[in-house]
Amino acid sequence: MFHSARLKLTAWYLLIIFCISLFFSLTVYQILTFEVDRFASRQRSRLESRMMESEGIPAEMRIRLLQRQAVLALDPELISEAKNRISLALLGLNVVILGLSGALSYFLAGKTLRPIQNMLEEQKRFVADASHELRTPITALKSSIEVHLRDGSMTLPDAKSLLNSAKDQVDRLSTLSDSLLELSSNDSSESTVKEDVDIAEVAQKVVSEMQPIASQKSCRVVLDQSEARVRISSHDLYRLTSILVDNAIKYSQHGGEVRVTISKNKKYGICMVADQGIGIPEADQKHIFDRFYRAEDARKSNGSNGYGLGLSIAKKIVDQYKGFVRVKSRPGHGATFVVGIPMT
Ligand code: ADP
Question: Which of 318, 331, 249 has its CA nearest to residue 289?
Answer without folding.
Answer: 318
